[in-house]
Amino acid sequence: MDEGRDTPAPAGSGPAIAGDLPPLQRAYRRYVTHFLKCWDCRDLDKRCDEGEQMWRDYEATGRATGRQMSG
User: Fold this and answer.
1) Distance CA 60, CA 22 (A)
2) Is the pTM of this model over 0.85?
3) What is the Cα 7 distance to its own chain's centre?
């Protein structure tokens, strides 16, 4: 009845590797990874130029993806 429980998962069935993500998701991942480690990004009274640039890159990638999808 419990067949398959102890058998290993087929190759390639795991989660996607970051390199395989679409450009928009990679840009967002870079931003979020930075944001979670950067105290300046999380403080409303401070400014982080690097985090702001990553956010602008994410937005630009989103616009480019939208243009690409619309034809």
Assistant:
1) 14
2) no
3) 31
- Pair 62, 24: CB distance under 8 Å: yes
Other Cβ atoms closer than 10 A to 61: 18
DSSP characters for 3-69?
TTSSSPPPTT-SPPPGGGS-HHHHHHHHHHHHHHH-HHHH-TT---HHHHHHHHHHHHHHHHHHHHH
The predicted model gives 33-50 an average pLDDT of 94
Task: Return d(Cα 49, Cα 8) in angstroms, integer.
Answer: 46
Closest CA to 50 of 59, 62, 61, 38: 38
CB-based burial label for 15 (10 Å; 0-12, 13-18, 19+)? exposed
